[in-house]
Design brief:
Elements: H1 2-35, H2 37-64, E1 67-68, E2 76-77, H3 81-88, H4 90-122, H5 129-141, H6 144-154, H7 161-168, H8 180-208, H9 212-220, H10 225-253, H11 257-263, H12 276-286, H13 290-316
Length: 319
């Protein structure tokens, strides 16, 4: 009994000592904050704006996903009803499938050609590299609405430039914007044209960060150009490739302006151009189902997170 009381006193004393240490750490932190209050005041607008335009919309959308609301009347609590309907909504899953197909059509050739462009810009025989870099990067800063209008003219059914070329070759015209695969190719082409140069610049930066000593050592050891490429260049570029794949996945899952301007809010023929974000926009701001639209947004978030994890696993590989 006496031992138990002594043990309690010692443990209580240690607990009080821990509290004192914790309190001292807090006091030191507060003093440091007050000491650098001018710096914190200078960066505080960012956190204020982020809280208003970032955290609040995220929290409100999660709250809204559990309610029915038309944007005007009172909200009605709906529990998991929006999410249950989301799981069984064929239009939503069609939008997911369309988005995935467009992502595959766009991402694979975009990153492949971006890597080739990066190697060409990195080659010593290329002159005026800065001019070429600016030229390849320009599509990324061009108005996406203007790009969609131009590509709409290229893929026009009757008087499009592509059909003009097909006629010159003696081939039949293609109703690009009347068939599902044509719509998806048109949207994918816009994505490739706009983001290929951007990813090429990122790959070029990755190539420039690889130490030349590695190539010199490989050359001394008798390695061929192909061996140096697959044993040095690709492994050293793996983090950059992972970054571009993940950002391309996030961007591909968020396609909106391209299909909306090209084929309209209904996704074109057979809704083959209906992407997840376009579907979210239609349900929320055209049909006024804001609660269900919020649920679609959170479903899209889970899909993007899942795809990002899968991409990370595939690209990262075994260490």
């Amino acid at each position: 009994m006496h031992y138990g009381r002594k043990q309690w006193i010692e443990s209580n004393g240690n607990y009080s000592g821990k509290n004192k240490i914790q309190k001292r750490r807090v006091d030191i932190m507060l003093r440091e904050i007050w000491k650098h209050r001018a710096v914190y005041a200078a960066i505080s607008p960012f956190y204020l704006l982020f809280g208003i335009f970032g955290l609040f919309p995220i929290g409100f959308s999660l709250y809204l996903a559990f309610h029915k609301w038309d944007g005007i009347g009172d909200m009605t609590y709906n529990g998991l009803g929006n999410f249950r309907y989301l799981v069984t909504d064929n239009e939503f899953w069609q939008a997911v499938g369309n988005t995935f197909v467009i992502w595959v059509y766009a991402t694979i050739p975009m990153l492949f050609f971006a890597l080739i462009i990066a190697f060409l810009l990195y080659a010593p025989f290329v002159k005026m590299r800065t001019l070429w870099r600016v030229g390849f990067f320009l599509p990324n800063v061009t108005s996406i609405v203007a790009v969609a209008i131009i590509f709409g003219a290229l893929f026009a059914n009757n008087f499009g430039f592509l059909n003009y070329l097909l006629q010159l070759l003696g081939l039949p015209m293609v109703q690009w914007l009347n068939v599902p695969w044509g719509i998806q190719i048109a949207i994918s082409s816009m994505v490739v044209w706009r983001w290929m140069g951007y990813n090429a610049i990122i790959y070029l930066a990755g190539l420039q960060s690889i130490p030349h000593v590695l190539y010199e050592a490989a050359k001394i050891d008798g390695a061929t150009g192909a061996q140096a490429f697959f044993r040095i260049t690709i492994p050293m570029l793996r983090p950059v490739i992972l970054f571009t794949v993940i950002t391309s996945t996030i961007g591909g899952m968020q396609l909106f302006t391209e299909p909306q301007v090209l084929v309209g809010n209904d996704g074109g023929s057979g809704a083959s151009g209906m992407t997840i974000v376009l579907y979210l926009y239609r349900e929320s701001f055209i049909n006024n189902y804001f609660g269900y639209g919020a649920a679609v947004g959170w479903g899209m978030f889970l899909i993007i997170a899942l795809f990002s994890i899968i991409n990370w696993k595939l690209v990262q590989g075994k260490k």
